[in-house]
Structures are given as structure tokens and as C-alpha cells.
Amino acid sequence: MSLPRHHLELLAPARDVAIGREAVLHGADAVYIGGPAFGARTKADNSVSEIASLCEFAHRYNARIFATVNTILHDSELEPARKLIHELYDAGVDALIVQDMGILELDIPPIALHASTQCDIRTLEKAEFLSYVGFSQLVLARELTLTQIAKIRAAIREDVALEFFVHGALCVAFSGNCYISEAHTGRSANRGSCSQECRLPYTLVDQNGAVVAFDKHLLSMKDNDQSANLRLLIDAGVRSFKIEGRYKDMSYVKNVTAHYRQLLDAILNERPEMASASDGSCTYTFTPDPSRSFNRSSTDYFANGRQGDIGAFDTPVHAGLAVARVTRIAHGKIEVQTLDEHDSLDAKEGEVVLSASAKNPDDRHEVRTSKYVDSSATKELDAEFANGDGLTYFNGRELLGLQVNVARRVDNLGHWQLEPNAKVNELPGLKVGALLHRNRDHAWEQTLAKTSSERRIAVTMVFAETEDGFSLLVNDGRGGIGRATLACEKNAAKDNAKALVSLKENLCKLGGTIYNVVADDVDMQWSQVFFVPASMANTLRRDAIAALEAERAKAFARWARFQATEPLAAYPSDSLTFLANVYNQAARNFYAKHDVRMIDAAYEMHQEAGEVPLMITKHCLRFAFNLCPKQAKGVQGVQGQVRAEPMTLISSGEKLTLNFDCKPCEMHVVGAMRPQILKSPPPSISNTSTLPVTGAAIKFYRKSTATLD
């Protein structure tokens, strides 16, 4: 059993159980969360008992909990992982998100398995294979286009669901195929310890040594935002819409989850043949707006084909929305004018531009360095400032920040006086005309720090007269029914209208539950109007709701693991390089069963001494700087002059070679593992934790001529 084809699932992240609960309350149909080990976010661990409490909470709404066991496993970790999976299953977890194929060879319970994005599912053949070996849901590569997704949907098993990231940070590399962190720091991205080398500044040099870009964050991507593509994704076959962010804070999860809940609900209203994957509807105390949470500006990446501006080259951090310009600096204070009709946002270029009347060259300089502004952002006319706001501005290429200690409104025309938490004359580059952005809205954060959503399941009621008293039936509209009876004396009402109103009011008092009902949804079935004391109505209501809760819990169906098809599906290739991340004997056995004859060790085994692709990515720096041969094709005077010669990335003296594979339109970032890391033991729990060590070290055949027995 898996996600039904007519259900749409909003899947939200949770760093901890408290955030997981809020994700459910803000509209998530499912939540993914890390356990105490083996999750691809090492600082987002949770105990099994905490996850059990989250499962119990979520299941009341028919929402699901997925646990991440998505690192590659050393042989010494197979047994601890097996035990953990049993514990997670006993805790009520609905599915595991996994990368290591060795898990499929372990003695684990019949829990549903989802193939992580770390499995690098970007080809039809890979997706088809995984759909036949036991996975009920596939997390597709972020780089896929809508057309590619549709082709995968048509090729795989009908009962296997497709999951796609719709929001959050983007890894520049194909997931599972990034080894820069391991090569440079010994921290494996495949084991949840990525050092984010992609967010560092680099200088790009061409084949002749000329500098193409200096000290830019050239491997840093904008953040993913598929808000405008949800209907197209549904048409392509996606059913699970995933929000990235297991390191993000609670306000981010609340805000972004609510945003996509509203978008999906609007689509569900248009398409009655589809349904939400869980129960209940949400009401919010705020207006969801993803641009107000952490972001690096936004892109829909490759969903609609290659885009010209997907990089966050200026800064890898959250600059915030443009809100004001500095008009005066004096006496330790900053006077500003909020953006108005004289400023505009160029949606095409995504940069702030001045009106034609602007004469100050400094203004133009500030404008040119502000291209990170989200093209989907709208102006905040007469923005309200508050004590505690965080503001940013550019000083050349450097993004700087300040906190507002005191904010005073000067007038109702958008003029404010701001007193920062630092001496104004010590804020480098801050000057009249500077464009200010807000990356922390204190009032907004305060709103989200409080109770900001209520999720209720609508029910109907039937109050009926029985032979010896009354009964109450509560129906959740999805098969759940709770019934209670009360034997009592029946007395005719003296005031029919008053008695009826009072009874319905008492029956509708569901404030302490997860349900709600309106008086119009209470059906009265009696021969006459009776007087029913509040105590009797309350008893019937409590007993009927308790019966409904018990019935819903009993009816909740756990998903079971899909069985591999017989005969076993053959892997698309008979050989695997280190890019397959085979790190243990169980994974090796898995691939051998599926007709793979040659297997290289995972990069983390420290057997690749020479230069190899440390990253493979669809992001192309030649394309980004208009140096792509395909861009020059057909351009008079240019055609044939541009070739995909290698280029070089330089950061802190470290050089990486860029090779360009133009047929699949990919860039390979090539380098070697640092000697001290190469000589160190392969990472495992034996040298990183106190968990028990079991199992023998795996022996790999390094030569491509070696075959399996």
C-alpha cells in the first residue's frame, strides 16, 4: 500500500518533534524527520520515543511520519541500523527514506521504503529499476524537467508514487554525487556531514588564465520555488510535494507549509477528483509569504528547461526583501524612506532599479549590486519597522547587516528614524541612497512564535431520540463514525426554540478537540422537541467524540513495504563506479543479485587517490557567463568561435578543474582528495560515536577488469 494516485501529499521537514507538530498543524500531510542516527542531517537527530509521540499526534489527522535513514552505511553500522529500523517501526513510523541499497538486504520489518533524492533518480531507467525492487515512493532529482518527470511517471509501476522538491535550498550537484566536502574536509555529504563547500566564494579562470568572475559564490544556487508550477507538476504525475529544510527553524516551516497548503487546497477545489492525503483544514493568524522566510532569492530551476539566472552568486545568505533607502545619516541615527512609486522591481532581471529621474551615481552603484533580490518579491510600500528588525545592505560585493534597536515613525509618508545596535560611523559603506533590505522582521517573527494555526476536522452530527433516551452519531465524512447513547427520562421542552438552540450549542462545543461542527450540520431526529440538560448533551458529545477517535485510530492503515518483482529486475548497467556509493557488503550483495558484475568502492572508502569528478551538476558556468557553444550556435560572427574548453575554479589556493560535457549539458568539477584525508580511516561509527561495532570490513575490487564471483 502506498500513496493513492488521487491523493496529493504536502511533505514538510522537521528538525525536531516540536517543529513536526507545527508542520502538521499548519497543513502538512506528512512530515520527514531524522532519528538518533543515520540521517543525512547530523545535527537534526531525535530520539525514537520523541518520534513515537509525533506519530501518535500526526496519525490523529491521518497524516504520516517518514524517518530519514538516508546515509550510506559502513559495514560496522549495518546491525545498529537494522535495530534502529525495527525501533522506528515499533514507534509507528510510516515509511523510511533511504539511500543505501544495503538496507534492502537486512532483516527489517515490513515498513514502506522511499528512495531518497540521494539515490540520484534522474533517468527513466534508474526510476524504473527502483520501482521494481521494493520502493513505494521515489524522490526525484531536483534537476528534472516537467517533460522528464512525465516520462518517468509513464514508465514506472502504477502504484509507485513520485515525490518532488518544491521549495527550499538547492544542492548544486546531483544529490548523492557530491564529494567536495569529503575530499577537502573529510566530512561526507553522503553521511550527513556536508561542509557546504558550494557556498564558498570562488574565482573563475578560463583556459587562457583570464579571470571571468572574481570572488563570487559561483556554485551557490538560488532557492527552489515551484509555487507557479504545482498544477503542471500534478499533470506530470507528481503526488508528493516536498519542502526542504530539516535544519530550518520553526517559523520557516510554519510559513512555507501554510503557503503550499493554501496553494494545494486551491487546486483541490478545482479538481474534485483529487483529495488531500490527510484530514482537516487550517486557519492561520498570518498571511503566508515565503519571501519573508530565509531564502537566497528564488528559481524554479530546470522544471521548465534551462534558465539563465539560477545562481546566487552575490551572497549565499538571506539578504531579505528590499524595504527602504537611506535618506540621511546624522547623530548616530539612520533616516530612511520606505520604497514607493519612485522605486520598482524589474521582474525580468530580479534587480532593484531607480526611476529615470535618479541622478546620483552612488544610487546606480547600489542598484547594480542588488541583483539577488527575488524577482517574485513585491514592494513593501510604507513598510512598518519595529525594534529588533534585522537589515542588510551591500558594501561593494560584501553583504553587511545591522540590527535596529529603536525604530521611530517620523510621519505617515514612509519616513522612519532607525537607531542601530552599532555606531553608524563604524558601519562600512552605509551612505545616503543605500538600499536597505529586511532579513528579519521582528513583528512577523513574534507572530509566528505564538500559536499561529488551528487545524480542525469537520464533522456532522445526528442527534436522535431512542426508545429509552437519546443517541448522538458523529461522522467525519471519510468513513469514521462515533456513536454514543444515553438512557434518561425524556421531558418535553417548554420553549421549543430556546431548547433547540441550547442543545445545538452544547453539542457543538468541540473546542478542546481536533474537530469542529456548525449548528447547521446537526441533524435532529425526534418526534418532538425535548429539553436536554447541558450535562446530558455534554456527556453524549464527549462519548461520541471518544468513540470517533477510537474508530479513526483503529481504521488507520499502515503502509507495507512493496515486494520486489519476480524475476528480479536487472540494474540498468552491469558495472558501477564510485558514484554508486557502495559502502558495505550488503549493498554489494544487492547489486550482485541484480546482475551488476563490477563494483567500485564508494568515495568514502578513500581508495580514489587521483583526480575524479567531485561534483556533477546541471549548473553550467559557461552558460551562466554566456560562454556556452550552444548559445553561440547560429550567432553570426560568433558561431564556431566558442568551445567548451576546461576552466578553473580557485578558492583559498585550492584549484578545481571544470570539464563540460555538452551532450547531456553537465559540468564536472574535478579534483583530488587531500592527502591527509586519503590516509585517514573511512568514516564509520567506529570512529565517530560510541555505538557498538559489528561486521567485517568490505573488500572491493578496484580494477575495472575484476568481476564478482
Shape: globular
**Gap between N and C termini:** 36 Å
Overall SS class: alpha/beta
CATH topology of the domain at 7-170 and 224-292: TIM Barrel
Query: For the CA atoms, what is the radius of gyration?
Result: 29 Å
Please mark out the parts with pLDDT under 50 across 5 or more consecutive residues, or reply none.
Answer: 344-382, 688-709
Secondary structure: number of strands:
36
Query: Major sheet, described briefly?
Result: 8 strands, parallel, barrel
The amount of beta strand, in percent, is 25-35%
- Assign a percent range to the helix content: 10-25%
Arithmetic mean pLDDT: 90
Plain-language structure description:
- This protein starts with 6 loop residues before the first strand and ends in a 31-residue tail after the last helix.
- With 709 residues, the protein is α/β, with parallel strands linked by helices.
- Among the domains are: 7-170 and 224-292, TIM Barrel (Alpha-Beta Barrel), CATH 3.20.20; 319-449, Thrombin, subunit H, CATH 2.40.10; 459-555, no CATH class.
- The chain has an 8-stranded parallel barrel with strand order 1-2-3-4-5-6-7-11, surrounded by 7 helices.
- α1 runs parallel beside α2, α1 runs parallel beside α8 and α11 packs parallel to α12.
- The protein contains 16 helices and 36 strands.
- It is globular.
